[in-house]
Amino acid sequence: MTNHVSVPDRSWWETAVGYEVYIRSFADGNGDGVGDLAGLTDRLDHLAWLGVDLVWITPFYPSPFADFGYDVADYTDIDPLFGDLDAFDAMVAKAHGLGLRIMVDVVPNHSSDQHPWFRDAASSVDSDKRDWYIWRDPAPDGGPPNNWITHFGGSAWTLDEASGQYYLHLFLPEQPDLNWANPAVGDAWEDILRFWLDRGVDGFRIDVTQGLAKDPEMRSNPELRSLVDGMSRNEQWDSFEHRYDIMQPETLDVFRRWRKLCEGYDAFLLGETYVLDTAALTHFLEPNDGIHRGFWFAPMHLQWSPEDVREVLEAPIDAVPAGIGWAMSSHDDPRAPGRYGDGELGANRALGLFTMFAGLPGTPFLYQGDELALVDGVVPPDRYQDPVVFRTGVATDSRDGCRTPIPWEPGSPMLGFSTADDGWLPMGGRTDADTVAVQRDDPEAFVHRMRAMLLARRELLSRGLLATQPVEWTDLGSDLVSYRRGDLHFVLNAGESALELSCDNEQVIFRTGDAEGLVAPGATSPAVGAGCSVGPGEAVILQSVMLQSSAADTRA
Ligand code: GLC
């Protein structure tokens, strides 16, 4: 590993910046219009240049693709659409050579209905695998055993005509839930994790972390309001208190076992803790013997206002100071810049917020294209792919817009994503100016501002300024969100207009408004002891002048 920052007494993952690769849409190496491992391998240099440390790759396993790979038919192989195990090994070797770590996405809550385990389980009530999934007799009226619904809308139970029993699925009927109360499932999963660890992966992103164990009595959830036609998937989900279907204490025991295994490999466990309250995060992270970190999803739902920005930063830090995976976009939610404001303002705010993540304890994660300030691609209804929109019929439920392919170079219909004329999703209205190549050629482009920030963070870590210092929230006025860490002061202008900041005894050492990078230690800045203007959405990093000069003295 060449470019990692290593901070004494800190594990590598405590200082890493992550990057999510949604493999179908990242880079297509074989010209079939779908991203793959060869395409990713070719483009890893971009990620090393950008300054991220850890690459999370969404599922590439054999799959019927009912949910685009989150329905796994074999946990220890690669779907031919994406390559094969040799292509995987080549990708890992290249990544490691570039100083990048690799995290694979594991899907333990459910398998595909085409997984041999489920096919066996469904073949007979007497199958050895029957109890690897969750089967129940119908309710007395013949309907589903309880009132649980799926994350994608509709009942979580599907009747298996052959046996007359229902099986449980918290997502699509093609994604039956595994029965984690059966110890054989846990043993099989230990083998799966070991398979990937032995192939050299550095960690796992755990799909549906909150879901694995279920209430043993399968009680109905308290209903908060009645379901009505036309509700979005989130409105349906929020109509219940999810007391019995998710967040069961036994789930943590699964991750305790995984943690022990991973410690032998120095590997990292990051949960998709899709819960919007900090109490739930505390449940997973406070004991500190299960997952290392859990994603905090509030920034994905943030409707921009200074109060809400402050809240999404402060609440998780107050609850679980070191446990947060920070992200603002993903393959499941609309991209950040489009949600945070129009045009350049949205892009500036996304970078400003990400800078605030980057200064806090935790692991900040970019989603592919965040470094280009991409907004959602435009996908016409006749090109919809996401099964959720077909299930609920609600167009805003579609996750296709955040999944359109990455634009790499100008000059071809798929802008360098693929040599094909079209892809599994359209490019969605990208222009040449959106592409990686055009942005990298323009020193003023967004990608350079993002990169400058990531490199500044590395530099601050290596100067020992961002390692162990506690977070102290500061109050500079209602539109400014700010905190100190030791001698650094991170300030974001979350308001609508430029603001003057007084810089008594502090020097601006970095600003997201330009791509110039970190001010050299000891350099004088016109802002010392004066004021500086911070634009809307802009973040600045200030450093106490006293410390700067003593650091410079020590070096001299
Ligand atoms: C997670 C994934 C999502 C998938 C779901 C079911 O939320 O991020 O894409 O549809 O799990 O596996």
What does this structure look like?
With 556 residues, the chain is an alpha/beta fold. Among the domains are: 1-108 and 184-208, TIM Barrel; 116-168, Oligo-1,6-glucosidase, Domain 2 (Oligo-1,6-glucosidase, domain 2); 466-555, Golgi alpha-mannosidase II (Immunoglobulin-like, Sandwich). It has helices spanning 12-15, 37-50, 85-97, 116-123, 183-198, 233-237, 250-263, 278-285, 298-301, 306-319, 336-340, 343-359, 387-392, 436-441, 446-462, 545-555, and strands at residues 18-21, 54-57, 101-106, 135-136, 157-160, 165-168, 203-206, 268-271, 293-296, 324-327, 363-367, 471-475, 480-485, 488-493, 499-502, 506-511, 531-534, 539-544. An 8-stranded parallel barrel has the order 1-2-3-7-8-9-10-11, surrounded by 5 helices. Strands 12-13-14-18-16 form a 5-stranded antiparallel β-sheet. The longest helix has 17 residues, at 343-359. The two termini are 30 Å apart. 50% of the residues are buried. It binds alpha-D-glucopyranose. Alpha-D-glucopyranose is lined by residues 67, 70, 107, 171, 207-208, 272, 274, 331-332.
